[in-house]
Amino acid sequence: MKMNEGNKISKKKVLIVKVPQCSFPMLNNSDDITVVGRFNPRPSLALGYLGGFLKKYGGEYLDVVLKDLNVDAYLDSPSGEIDSSSLIKRLDLEITNAEYDVIGISSVFVNNHRWVKLAVECARRCNPKKPIIIGGGYPTLYPETAMQETMADYGVIGEGEVSLLKIINKIFSVENQEFNKLFPGSGQYLYWELEKLKKVVSNSLIDNLDLIPFPEWDLLNVREFISKHPEKSIYCLTSRGCPFKCIYCSTFMAWGRSVRNRSAEDVLNEIDWTYKHFGIKHINFVDDNMIIDRNRINNILQGIIDRNYNDFSWSASGFTISSLKKDTVDLMVKSKITRVTIPVEVGTPEMQKIIKKNLDLEKVKEAYKWFEEYEIPIRLTIMIGFPMETEDQVNSTIDFVKRLRPQEVHINIVTPWPGTELYEYAVKHNKLDREIELDELDHHKDVGFVNVEWSYDQLREIKSDMNIFVNFLNNRELRDPKNHKRLLRKWQSFEFGLPDHAVLFISLGYLTGLMGDKSKSCEYYEKVVSLFKKKTIRDAYADYLKWDDVPAIHDFKSIMGNSLTQVLN
């Protein structure tokens, strides 16, 4: 069947389902409740891009339906709370009741593999003759395992848009000449032939990202999500790929080793569209490195300034500061950045070289001062637990953070992702005592390094204490009344996702007290006392009540007095 020759055909229905990205119910058994919160999803950018791409380049013969089970479950819940066990039934019903000619099953992370397998089993049971395509982190990092475990018909490896449409065109014998001219090659994927796995290896990376249409938010209930969710923002991606070779990073397996940028004009057009069409007034850019091309990022920021949006702001998940200049920082502030994330990872020059991040820590301090001058909240991300790391080097990283005193710190215990140089190092030097299980590929879980100078108990204690101290009890914004409203908004946005976080509510009680609302302060403090009636809460947080030199702890204990003592005893 040839397209682009005026022929009319009946459209084939393509259903793309994003499986739940929370832990599979039977596995949600973390002993550390300080890292467990309510499942709090966001509309899937990947799903939006796939839908937009299929509609633009296959819309003449494809009818595209997108189902983000995460967001749909959130919208259907009156409180917004999602019971992960209920998602099993939701997944089954969505696929069982759907009509389609081909189904795509998308997952973000490798540890979502049980959800992927369940979705494939359901699709095979309900529509045994309809082709099944899987994509996302699971088949990208474990292509053969994913295909053998799920027995899906096709598995997309890496960047998905081109490969997905190539597969669909192959399934329905469609020769889309315009599409093939723009995107030559066969894509990159696996498929079964005579019960044997075959692999198609062809460059499927899109050089000109402006050819990708904007995310198909209309198919993902974004308006309803924005009207309900307290954080009324969505994600945006202005580039793909990263030129650096950090030994721990696996993103190159999806995006490649080079940076591909959208034009400033295309990015600004998308911001215009989301602002005017959906009323979205905050965007979170999720690029790996959106500022490498200084001229481009400056043009984007200047374009936002020139448009003079009402109540518009933005943030970025992270970018390297190695190429950051003061003029770009000035534009970031004028274009209303609300928070900057600096991925430092390690706090010594030696470890910077070992993990091949090669970040100049003096440059970090300089950039930090630039943002500090403008009073822009700073979030540092660090990693502890590299297998070649000493205790002293771990402590040096923590000391580096303490000296900078950011408004927020995010600490990950290192995970050796398969395919990375770090993983190969760990295997070669006998730093892993066993093969990593798929369920363990999660930053909240320890992955069993051995023959190292530190212990996981030490790392967990460091991570927990730094989170409590920097992000809450000793948050630097507490010291300046003009930042109290901003901090209150931030902490209150955590209440839904962290309903059992006793220290969060101590911090809120202390902050509202500083702001003069004694009634609200007591309300928060009383909630903490109620939480401490649960043994799991006491076990997780009671030790922090010994930090009497911290004003928030002292205030909480002095006000709650006997009622707190009775609960703890």
Outline the structure in words.
The protein has 569 residues and is of the alpha/beta class. It folds into 3 domains: 12-200, Cobalamin-binding domain (Rossmann fold), CATH 3.40.50.280; 231-471, pyruvate-formate lyase- activating enzyme (Alpha-Beta Horseshoe); 494-568, no CATH class. Helix content is 44%, strand content 13%. The protein contains 23 helices and 15 strands. It has helices spanning 45-58, 69-76, 86-97, 113-126, 137-141, 143-150, 161-171, 177-182, 222-228, 252-255, 264-278, 294-307, 326-334, 349-354, 361-373, 391-404, 421-428, 456-473, 484-494, 502-514, 518-531, 535-541, 551-568, and strands at residues 12-18, 62-68, 102-107, 132-136, 154-156, 189-193, 196-200, 233-236, 239-240, 260-261, 282-285, 313-316, 337-345, 378-384, 408-413. The strands form 3 sheets. The chain has a 7-stranded mixed β-sheet with strand order 2-1-3-4-5-6-7, with helices on both faces. Strands 8-11-12-13-14-15 form a 6-stranded parallel β-sheet. A two-stranded antiparallel ribbon has the order 9-10. β1 (12-18), α1 and β2 (62-68) form a beta-alpha-beta unit. α3 runs parallel beside α4 (113-126) and α11 (264-278) runs parallel beside α12. The longest helix has 18 residues, at 456-473. It is globular and about 75 Å long. 38% of the residues are buried.
